Amino acid sequence: MNPFVVGNWKMNLSLEEASTLAMDLRQGLEGVDGVEVGVCPPFVWLPGVCFVLMGTKIRVGAQNMHWEKKGAFTGEVSGPMLKDVGCTHVLLGHSERRHLFGETDSMINKKLKTALSLGLKVIFCLGERLEEREGGETFTVVERQFTAGLEGVGQEALPELTIAYEPVWAIGTGKNATPEQAQEVHGHLRNLLENKYGNETASQVRIQYGGSVTPENAGELLAQPDINGLLVGGASLKKDSFLKIVFTTQERMRSPI
Ligand code: PEP
User: Fold this and answer.
1) Disulfide engineering: 82 pairs with which of 11, 87, 116, 197, CB 3.0-4.6 Å?
2) CB contact set of 27 (below 8 Å; sequence gap of 6+)
3) Distance between CA 106 and CA 226 in Å, rounded?
4) Domains, the chain, with CATH or none
């Protein structure tokens, strides 16, 4: 199973900056092997980025979508639209969607099922807030998000799923989880996957870590047995830092110790 490194550009970059970054990644990642790489630009830049990255192995994902396929939902974007434009992936349940825009577990579950039914691959984000970690509720929170988010999702869909553990207190704060803190939760998520889908299926699902990932901390995070990739926000906006993270991942796979 190759690790999966994804850049979440959030609501950043001008048209020119997004095009330049996509072109730089196209060139910079040409020879990369043994790592799957993706980017999630803002909706409006998706057509251009898909065009620039066409014919490469770099995946393009959206940062969100609606659960209905079409209709009177002003301001929303549907799964079929994402497929039309060339997206292979979609991020769902990002903490900014949950906490700034009130997305509930049940909304995320509906989106997840629609995306999978359309053949979009899903990066399903979950993670606890600072007060929940400090209150000793981390496992309870991620378990609730996991169970509700994947309700009604069968084993056959699991090859299309990546889970991203993103502790909210680590996102955009410069304070990443330690490799041990992350591994503890990733190990728990792996157990939850095993209980729901069986050992073999669970071992094939990639669990990314996200939260203040940098070129400096990527290697030690990836050294953990249940960290199978990274979801990168701030450090994915600059060619040099994102490429360094991808190359560190590649090195780590070639010489795991
Ligand atoms: C994210 O947006 O998912 C994220 C992890 O952001 P950052 O790397 O900036 O903390």
Assistant:
1) 87
2) none
3) 27
4) 4-252 (3.20.20.70)
| List 66, 128, 166, 186, catalytic entry | 166
**Ligand 1 pocket test target in 9, 231, 238 with most atoms within 8 Å of CB:** 231
Selecting among 66, 89, 94, 186, the annotated active-site residue is 94
Annotation marks residue 94 as catalytic: yes
CA 237 to chain centre: 15
- Asked if 76 is an active-site residue, the reply is no
pTM higher than 0.90: yes
E strands, the chain, are 4-8, 36-40, 59-62, 89-92, 121-126, 161-165, 206-210, 229-232
The ligand 1 site (C-beta within 6 Å) comprises 8, 10, 166, 171-172, 210-213, 231-235
Torsions phi, psi of 5, nearest 5?
-115, 125
User: What are the φ and ψ backbone dihedral angles of 222, each rounded to 5 degrees?
Assistant: -70, -15
Taking only the tens place, the pLDDT of each residue in 116-145 is: 999 999 999 999 999 999 999 999 999 999
